[in-house]
TrEMBL record:
Similarity-based family: Belongs to the LysR transcriptional regulatory family.
Record domain HTH lysR-type: where: 3-60
Official protein name in the record: LysR family transcriptional regulator
PROSITE patterns: HTH_LYSR
Keywords carried by this UniProt record: DNA-binding, Transcription, Transcription regulation
PANTHER family with a match to the protein in the record: HCA OPERON TRANSCRIPTIONAL ACTIVATOR HCAR, TRANSCRIPTIONAL DUAL REGULATOR HCAR-RELATED
Organism: Streptomyces gibsoniae
Any matching Pfam family: HTH_1
């Protein structure tokens, strides 16, 4: 059977989002076109993969059985292509990074060590949690806990990092240094799944009613607006300084919360010759000892 890998990729994205409209946006396709492509795949396989309803799309039993194999198929195809290219091309690596992490020094050093190689970067958000498995990046520098299963991956811990309270500049805790979690007892804190970020449930401020909580597709900037207006607070990794550029937002160290980890993740069986060098560079420049020597780790 000749199965079009492009259609398989479309299937995995629809399965991830559970909605043809959002999947079409992710794939930069018109929704009717995406629906036709999935129908083509279903015709090729001879089974229905999705149950469609006004509320969204859910996998059929056949779709649930096909999904893990589809992801393996895409991964194997990417690996086969990568192996073939590596045989005739200069070594290439794409380093993904997430959240507010900065990997500039690592990338520069990797390029210095391998002037004939091609070192690329790709910023990822939580929607891209399959980027490493699907071969769109070759390595990932991210905060733990990871938003992906770690079976088949090599996870290298680089350092632990403290966390900070992110609040409006007018919040009563904005000028405290540091602050205890006990001081947030009037906030309803909710940890994000598989991330080190904690958000509070929006609440009224004075005569202003509480806005709705962030939606799943809201951007990081949309969520910062809730903080800046005083309707909620958040707890971020200390090195995520994206909020620090705003004068209406304050960052306050938190003293009694577990630190988060910064890790390097690669595919366990990836033969890319640049990965070993990347791990060495990341340990050197992002390891705990290096950060302490450069006074880059915040003090708890």
């Amino acid at each position: 059977m000749d199965v079009d890998l492009r259609l398989v990729r479309y299937f995995t994205v629809v399965a991830e989002y559970g909605n043809f409209g959002r999947a079409a946006t992710k794939l930069h396709l018109a929704q009717p076109s995406l629906s036709r492509q999935i129908q083509r795949l279903e015709a090729q396989l001879g089974v229905r993969l999705f149950d469609r309803s006004p509320q969204g799309s859910s996998l059929t039993d056949a779709g649930q059985a096909f999904l893990p194999r589809a992801r393996i198929l895409l991964q194997e195809a990417e690996q086969a292509a990568h192996t073939a290219r590596a045989a005739v091309q200069p070594p290439t690596i794409t380093v993904g990074y997430a959240g507010g992490l900065i990997i500039t020094a690592c990338v520069q050093e990797l390029r210095r060590r391998h002037p004939d190689g091609q070192v690329r970067t790709r910023h990822l958000d939580w929607r891209d949690r399959h980027a490493l498995a699907e071969g769109r990046v070759d390595a990932l520098v991210a905060y733990g806990p990871l938003p992906l299963p770690t079976d088949g991956f090599r996870v290298t811990k680089l350092h632990e990092e403290s966390r900070v309270l992110v609040t409006s500049a007018s919040h009563h805790l904005a000028n405290e240094k540091p602050v205890s979690l006990r001081a947030l007892s009037d906030e309803e804190l909710v940890a994000c799944v598989s991330t080190p970020v904690v958000w509070s449930t929006p609440k009224p401020v004075g005569d202003r009613p509480a806005p709705p909580p962030p939606a799943i597709d809201d951007s990081y900037e949309d969520k910062l607006e809730l903080i800046a207006t005083g309707h909620c607070v958040a707890i971020f990794p200390a090195s995520d300084r994206r909020a620090a550029v705003r004068e209406d937002i304050a960052l306050v160290p938190v003293i009694d919360i577990d630190p988060c980890e910064v890790v390097l993740v690669t595919r366990a069986d990836d033969p890319n010759p640049l990965l070993g060098s990347l791990e060495d560079v990341a340990r050197t420049l992002l390891g705990t000892a290096s950060l302490r020597e450069n006074n880059e780790l915040p003090v708890n």
